[in-house]
Automatic annotation (TrEMBL):
This is TonB-linked outer membrane protein, SusC/RagA family. Residues 1-29 form the signal peptide. PROSITE patterns: TONB_DEPENDENT_REC_3 (PS52016). Belongs to the TonB-dependent receptor family. Residues 391-954 form the TonB-dependent receptor-like beta-barrel domain.
Length: 1002
């Protein structure tokens, strides 16, 4: 069905559009020129069109349309305040469509600042803009690919390389230890959007609010920064755009293991068995056979070449007072791991109507359905991911036995003790379905010339269903389970705006907001254990055991906001904001919080008055506070769990026990931030530079504090602790080449941030994290330390191996030469502590767009620096865990021997030690795409055909030995990911992709 649908879209529908286009050719009067003037956000009303050297001219209407009488020799001058003017010779053209570009020397670009807009030159807070132009020449399928490296102060990282995998966006560091650090996403005025499901082709721009003076307008929801997404609008004559591209993806490299030389693996395995007093596993003849014939490389067996398809279709334009933008997107991505993939279908409808001169209304509707096949993030991660298991599995055991059945386990009981990873991936049927529907009604009425009212009414529905049949169940029998999470929310925002200019000098604008939002979560699940008929999910009713779970929570937020903006003589800008939030999460007396901010900007060199090389110089400063209500809906109450206990040794009696205690005084985390910035424009607007320095302190941290066993155990939420972030953001852009045929625009975004834990609870200087190493050692590999950044990695300090000359010293600790050697304390115990940190301190992105006549090239590089990777995948390969004792690392051939005393241990060592800490710094060529555009394709006026090809993740410069240093892996029950970054227990590899595509516009 899916293939038929795709073929219909690709073939029949596209052909139908082209045929339709052929029927719409028209003849126009020679002396009448019509056209449309637009910018990145849609039509430009009031743009001036003048015949050069005359006073004859006109202006664009509401839809950006114009009509003018001109001769072929005339030159039309198209201009609008804040945009670069364009001169166009009429020639034989009867239709001229113009897209205006920002005139950086005037800095009058309109920025979305929340509940309104402001000219860029008047913005006082730290705001970064990412427009569609910066990524439109890339084959982008995910919003993170569009945002990564393009906004200073914004860090975007892939969780892993799986199709449809989650993304992590952080703005100016990490604030909370146990709470959520995701920024607030606002899509067309509706709060709480999800970037991962949004179609990048629908985006006109993204404005990122970074400092508290900008985010305070969102109060309790703005503590982690805000991303304001504006989707596209229609304008002018009807246009249809079709974009189709296909990609081929592969893993850039395989990890070197002894599966490539199984004879060496067998010899080393025999040596390992002899060292622990056991008999050798392999005979000499078996080893000789492995030398001749090799074995099975399970890493290679579960990896493949993946193919993906992406089709995007949009129609936009205006008819009278109606503007429309309609789009559809279909993605079908094969993962580079067998039997994994992702499919998504999304539809959008944006309709705007100018009902009268004073009344406008718009309705935006977006729906999507995404389905992950065998979601790698949650599939079999209890003892390391499937990549981890494949790299530690016994290469001497083939996939199938002599009868063609799977070898479920190693036939010799060596290597990984887990189930055959090929069996797990091929026979597991897991489907994660994410269905979303959102709608936003926007209406505005101009009550007077100075006073207006706007309404934003939005709703979201999200159904996330997981249906899973697993052959890796309990007691080695299949299990089936089902989970559903139904999320619904709605929002009503009433926005009042008053603005007046006094004496052409004093510009005052007041914005008042009253807002209410409500959200509900309903969760249901069941698990069926030990299916008697192992024939799939729909035989769950044959299971021996069942468990069921239900949960419900609801939260409300009521808010009032007032913002005052003042501009003096076009030079001094002042902004003051106060938001008053009340939440249902906290108890009476603690529900309401006030979040203020103030900011100022002053132009030392005003772009409207300067004609020198430096045409703009502006200073900015701001201070503000925002909050975080990041606890569970019932986090202030005591929580119970069910259990049963046999008091007499007979049948157990049911009962309950406390898992967490109540705290009626619990209240907001508060983040206080100070920001100082400088904006610079030069060389007639060709260059721009901005730098912001900031410090933000998050106090009254919402921490889940353990309760001692003498007081009943469990935990309690408390406002204890403090985290600081300080750093700077730099944005630099320059038109390196700018002439009629050749243009080269380059943009650099760079961010540096230093994080520090400045206070913990109970006078402690360290608390344990929740990330445990796989393999049954049950040792925590992350810690939170006072005076250090979040992301501290915990382990022992590896000192090499005990040598022959140290035999007596080794014996005192029960060791012998060839064993791993670690730093010990005065009592002879191995010392565990911080051995690295997984939080990056420096990120950057460098985007280049080059055009030569009809050719265009996009080159995008990005880098991340100043962090470590805890390579627990390598630890498993080296044989450092209880369920993967065999040596699989390629360098084990040079392990310690009495005649070759290397620092590679000949016996199993600790899993978590500094031996597996690696520098994660990297530089990546994220995109290189070349395209050529055929204008008036097929002899059809205003029809374009663009053919493009390129690659993504083409090269990676790093010293990291794993697949990719950007990726991490974790289990969902191991706490906040931001206090355990940089830990790799077998993340899904990040693919290298090669893309070929075509765009048609008419």
């Amino acid at each position: 069905m899916k293939k038929q649908f795709f073929n219909f879209l690709k073939g029949g529908f596209l052909m139908g559009l082209i045929i339709t286009l052929l029927g719409f050719q028209q003849l126009h009067a020679q002396q009448t020129v019509t056209g449309t003037v637009t910018d990145d956000l849609g039509p430009v009303a009031g743009a001036n069109i003048v015949i050069q050297g005359t006073t004859t001219g006109t202006q664009t209407d509401f839809d950006g349309n114009f009509t003018i009488e001109a001769s072929p020799a005339d030159i039309l001058e198209i201009s609008y305040i804040g945009y670069a003017s364009q001169d166009i010779t009429v020639g034989g053209q009867t239709t001229i469509n113009v897209k205006l570009a920002e005139d950086a020397s005037k800095l009058d670009e309109v920025i979305v600042i929340g509940y309104g807009t402001a000219k860029k030159k008047d913005v006082t807070g730290a705001v970064s803009r990412v427009s569609a132009e910066s990524f439109e020449n890339q084959p982008v399928t995910r919003v993170d690919e569009a945002l990564q490296g393009r906004a200073a102060g914004v860090t975007v990282a892939k969780a892993n390389g799986a199709p449809g995998a989650g993304i992590k966006v952080r703005i100016r560091g990490v604030n909370s230890i146990t709470g959520n650090n995701d920024p607030l996403v606002v899509i067309d005025g509706v709060l709480g959007g999800d970037l991962s499901t949004l179609n990048p082709n629908d985006i006109a721009s993204m404005d990122v609010l970074k400092d508290a003076s900008a985010t305070a307008i969102y109060g309790v929801r703005g503590s982690n920064g805000v991303i304001l997404v504006s989707t596209k609008k229609g304008s002018g004559k009807g246009k249809i755009n079709v974009d189709f591209f296909t990609s081929v993806s592969q893993v850039p490299k395989l990890l070197p293991t002894l599966a490539d030389n199984v004879g060496d693996f067998a010899r080393i395995e025999n040596i390992r068995k002899l060292r622990i007093g056991q008999n050798p596993t392999f005979t000499d003849s078996e080893i000789a056979g492995f030398d001749r014939n090799g074995g099975t490389n399970y890493q290679d067996e579960i990896l493949r070449t993946g193919f993906s398809k992406n089709l995007q279709i949009s129609a936009s334009g205006s008819e009278g007072k109606i503007r429309y933008f309609l789009s559809g997107n279909y993605r079908d991505e094969q993962g580079i791991v067998i039997n994994t993939g992702y499919q998504q279908l999304s539809l959008r409808s944006n309709i705007d109507a100018q009902i009268s001169d004073k009344f406008k209304v718009g309705l935006n509707i977006y729906g999507s359905r995404g389905e992950k096949n065998n979601n790698f993030e949650s599939l079999g991660n209890g003892q390391g991911s499937l990549m981890y298991k494949a790299n530690t599995w016994d290469p001497t055991t083939p996939i199938y036995d002599a009868d063609g059945n799977y070898n479920r386990r190693s036939t010799r009981g060596i290597g990984s003790l887990n189930l055959n990873p090929v069996l797990t991936l091929r026979e597991t049927k897991a489907s994660d379905v994410d269905e979303r529907l959102s709608a936003a009604l926007n209406a505005s009425y101009q009550i007077t010339d100075n006073f207006s009212y706007s309404l934003v009414a939005g709703t979201q529905i999200n159904n996330y269903n997981v249906q899973r049949y697993s052959v890796e169940g309990s007691d080695d029998t299949p299990d089936a389970n089902f989970n559903t999470n139904k999320f619904t929310s709605y929002q009503i925002s009433n926005i009042f705006t008053w603005q007046k200019l006094f004496n052409d000098t004093h510009d005052i604008k007041l914005t008042g907001v009253q807002e209410y939002s409500n959200s509900k979560n309903i969760r249901n699940n069941y698990n069926a254990d030990n299916l008697l008929l192992p024939n799939g999910y729909y035989f769950a009713e044959t299971a021996n055991g069942f468990t069921i779970g239900n949960n419900f929570d609801e939260r409300e937020l009521s808010s009032f906001m007032l913002r005052a903006e003042y501009i003096l003589a076009n030079n001094l800008s002042l902004t003051a904001t106060a938001r008053y939030d009340g939440t249902s999460v906290f108890r009476p007396g603690k529900k309401w919080g006030l979040f203020p901010s103030i900011a100022a900007g002053y132009s030392l060199i005003n772009p409207s008055e300067s004609s020198g090389f430096i045409n703009n110089l502006k200073l900015r400063a701001g201070w503000g506070q925002v909050g975080n209500q990041g606890v569970n809906t019932y986090g202030t109450f005591a929580n119970l769990d069910n259990n049963s206990y046999s008091y007499t040794g007979d049948a157990p009696s049911p009962g309950t026990f406390i898992t967490s205690f109540s705290n009626e005084n619990l209240t907001w985390e508060t983040t206080t931030q100070t920001n100082i910035g400088i904006d610079l424009g030069f060389n007639e607007g060709r260059g721009s530079f901005s730098i912001d320095g900031y410090k933000k302190t998050t106090s009254d941290l919402l921490l889940n504090v353990p309760v001692s066993g003498t007081n009943g155990g469990g935990n309690v939420n408390q406002n204890i602790g403090e985290v600081e972030n300080f750093g700077f953001d730099i944005a630099f852009g320059y038109d390196i080449i700018q002439n009629e045929n050749l243009n080269w625009n380059a943009n650099l975004a760079l961010s540096q941030v230093k994080n520090e834990v400045t206070q913990l609870f109970g006078g402690l200087d360290q608390i344990d994290g929740q990330f445990q190493a796989p393999g049954g050692q049950a040792r925590v590999v992350n810690i939170i330390q006072l005076g250090e950044p979040l992301g501290q990695l915990n382990g022992a300090i590896f000192l090499g191996t005990w040598k022959n000359s140290e035999a007596a010293a080794a014996e005192a600790y029960g060791k012998k030469p060839g064993d791993a050697k670690y730093q010990r304390d005065a009592d002879g115990e191995i010392v565990f502590g911080a051995i690295g940190n997984g939080t990056p301190t420096l990120t950057w992105g460098f985007n280049n767009t080059i055009s030569y006549k009809n050719w265009d090239i996009n080159v995008f590089l990005n880098g991340v620096h100043g962090f470590d990777i805890y390579n627990l995948m390598q630890a498993g390969i080296t044989g450092g865990a209880g369920d993967s004792r065999s040596f699989m690392a390629a360098d084990q051939v040079n392990q310690w021997t009495s005649s070759n005393e290397t620092d590679i241990p000949a016996t199993v060592q600790l899993f978590n030690s500094s031996r597996y800490i690696e520098k994660g710094d990297f530089v990546r060529l994220s995109n290189f795409t070349v395209g050529y555009t055929f204008e008036n394709f097929g002899g059809l006026a205003n029809t374009t055909l663009k053919v493009y090809a390129g690659g993504q993740n083409l090269f990676l410069i790093t010293d990291y030995s794993g697949y990719d240093p950007e990726l991490s892996s974790r289990r969902t029950d191991q706490g906040n990911a931001d206090v355990a970054p940089g830990i790799n227990v077998g993340a899904y590899p990040n693919p290298r992709s090669y893309t070929l595509g075509v765009k048609v516009g008419f």
